[in-house]
Amino acid sequence: MNKRFLLVSVMLLTLLVGLMAACGSTEGKTDNKDSITMGIAIADVGQDGYNTLFANTIKETAEKEGIQIDVLDAQADAVKQANQIEDLMQKQVDIIMVWPVNAKAIVPVVKKAHEKGFPILSVNSIIDESGIDYINGYTGPDDFEQGRLAGELMVEALNGEGKVVEIIGTPGADNTNLRVEGFHEAIQDSDIEVIESQPSDWDLEKSQQIMENYLTKYNEIDGIFAMSDNVGTGAYNAIKEAGRESEIAITSANMYDSGYELIEKGEYYGSVEQSPIEDAKLAVKTAIDIVNGEEVEFANFIDTPKVTQENIEEFEKPGF
């Protein structure tokens, strides 16, 4: 089943899910608390500037609301993240938020938390479809849409034809899978061909190495789809060193300061804005609403508009 279709269709079941949760076990709930308590297990706080700013903002936003929050860093370790969720259950927090290291690997512990009565909010990256029934909602970017917008930018940049390489994020991560699916949907009616795809784990240096290998392997490359501007900047560094930056268009699904500057100079075709500040604030707001028993949409997306040299003056530099 198409994950995009699944995510949207599940929104229709929000009220039913809320009622079912209300009727289930209450082991994860305690009475007479002075304030709401939350816990969040983030995939990898130190991975890049986006993750770090998200973690700082979610802590600041919660504390401003008088909320006690534990912000935990899984350091890209799925086993460690599962243990962190176990710890949050032991602490009897009112709601558990998770930014999954791996969308499938997190499902068993999320199921366990759900069965104990803990509300669960998936943030930034949606849990695997096999665990959808165990969460109360999702907040963050619409990753399928971001990939689709990056694909539209690529079609514009190449006038609908050419050979493209992909440098994607972390294998198994749902944000990686959805962005790829969206990109492919956008280019499917064009004459653009994806000739190879390699994972970078969102790392700039690794992305540069991948691009260097692509340049050695392929004489003809017209475009690069980068999963984020951190990835795209690594790719740009490689093509610049090879003296081919004027030949190859780059589009990305998540704008960073580095991408903003390159777009501004006309050295990078376009990206998609995604704010870690808005991402974090929406997560806290939605979590509060869930704890307070308010009806919320299942999928709660932040805005992610396209950015090119033509409209870049409408956007502020991301700050990360």
Number of helices, counting only DSSP H or I runs of 4 residues or more: 11
Question: What percent strand?
Answer: 15-25%
Domains (count) = 2
String of helices and strands: HHEHEHEHEEHEHEHEHEHEHEE
Spatial strand arrangement across the major sheet: 2-1-3-4-5-11
Superfamily (CATH H level) name of the largest domain:
Response regulator
- What is the rounded distance between the termini? 35 Å
Give the helix proportion (percent range).
Answer: 40-55%
CATH fold label of the largest domain? Rossmann fold
Mean pLDDT: 91
Provide a descriptive summary of the structure in words.
By secondary structure, the chain is α/β, with parallel strands linked by helices. It folds into two domains: 3-141 and 276-302, 3-Layer(aba) Sandwich (Rossmann fold), CATH 3.40.50; 143-273, Response regulator (Rossmann fold, 3-Layer(aba) Sandwich), CATH 3.40.50. The protein has helices at residues 3-10, 14-23, 49-64, 78-90, 107-115, 143-157, 174-187, 204-217, 229-241, 257-265, 276-291; strands at 37-42, 68-73, 95-98, 120-123, 137-140, 161-168, 191-199, 223-226, 249-252, 270-272, 299-301, 306-308. A six-stranded parallel beta sheet has the order 2-1-3-4-5-11, sandwiched between helices. A four-stranded parallel beta sheet has the order 7-6-8-9, with helices on both faces. A two-stranded antiparallel ribbon has the order 10-12. Helix 5 (107-115) links the parallel strand 3 (95-98) and strand 4 (120-123). Helix 6 (143-157) runs parallel beside helix 7 (174-187) and helix 8 packs across helix 9. The longest helix has 16 residues, at 49-64.
